[in-house]
Amino acid sequence: MKKFSIYGLATLFAFSFAACDDYEEPNPTPQTNPQESILTTDEVAVSEVAAADPFNLSELDKKSEFINVANITVENLPAAYTMGADMQISIDGFTHAYAVPTTVEQGEDGIYKVMVNPASLQNVYYTNFTKDPAQATVQTRFLATTVTGTDKVSQVAYVGGPTNYYGPFNLTFVPYPADQIIDSKFYLMSNMTNWASDQGIEFSHTAASQYDDPTFKLTFEVSESQAAQGYEWKVAGASVLGTSSEWLGVSETGDPSDKSGSLVAGGPAGVIYDKGMYIITINVVDLSYTITSAYEQLYVPGSGNGWDWNNPSPVLLNNVLLSDDYVTYTGYQYLGEEFKFTSAPNWDEGNFGAGSEPNTIQNGSNDNCKIPATGVGLYWVSVNMDELTYALTFINNIGIVGSFNSWSEVNNLKMTAEEGDLIWKAEVNFDEGGEWKFNMNEAWDLSLGGSITDLIPQSNVNLPSPGAGTYEVTLDLTKRPYSCTLVKK
Fold this sequence. Notes:
CATH topology of the largest domain: Immunoglobulin-like
Radius of gyration: 33 Å
Largest sheet: 6 strands, mixed
Structural class: mainly beta
CATH architecture of the largest domain: Sandwich
């Protein structure tokens, strides 16, 4: 049985032309063409190898066994040649594909077996797709090559060219076991429920595997009476809910009331003595935790509103940014040259100024954030409190679009700004029984819908026509919820 390791054209060509250290390239460099295969695509077939059970990579590695991932059958291959193969794997239809090293063995029946080292497959899968040890199925495809020459000088050619892939096929396997088993669900346990194992509050998690994203988050409230008693907490994985001795407490090297630190199995409970909304974030790989305040809203004091949280003027009235997840806060703001974000109408609590990088913020920073080159005016503001970043979208126009103009967002009915870009007006000739919405910048990225007394950003709900006729529409962005009025002319 013959074995041939296929390393690709680049390596093989490097061996072929590395004989003379003093060789000088002609100038200009001569034109070269890829080596053409002596076989046509009709003379080569590549087939997948059916397996009764998924390949267990760890067990195969222990026995020093390779995986037969495909077979190559050939017609009319000259005696001086053998076959090779390049292999790729993917999980998204080869939008993203990654090479896996192969070895090709010639069997006694003349069939060439494409073999893969389980450790190589594991490495490519683990590096590019996921660290999750669960059984997986990937797509495979192959380039067939003809190989001739010696170990020192070889010529490799792709059958049908370097884009003629055979496949796709499916390959199912069980990756190596993880060094650490991670539960897919975690719960916050508390003395407020007498540490009942069925009363834990489940943490949220992203759609990613916990092996790729080991962070879990939970927003919870500590009432005034609970704070006075001391809100004690621990963390339990789903697999140990019934074994309180294995719940994660805080490290004894810190104070139980610390807002960040290490988690330790069997450690003492953490404790919170202040009422409020909180976000607890845990990392179940490095066993760490942080507890931060979950702000109900963010204020935006700045030169646009006189740095005044309670300025009564509609032109300078400060709007708040709201959130439905205590992470992303959004809203329309009239911004002057500089501004900051605060968690309350004062400087005493969260006071977020400019960070060290553009569009970042930092609690306690003395530096003000600055508007972009678009200048003073109305902006859609979005703040991410997880990442401590913000984004600004300048509003150069607000329009009304609906059935009365065939829902043309580009040809929307432009409104006129009044009172510091926070009040907008337009006359609209509505149709009977139609629907409409507000849109910004002649696009649908930013819009307002829902109801006229509670206009919701990016709502999928259209506003009903008030009836056929001409109406003066007034949009009010001075306070939340946003609203509008319609007066028939």
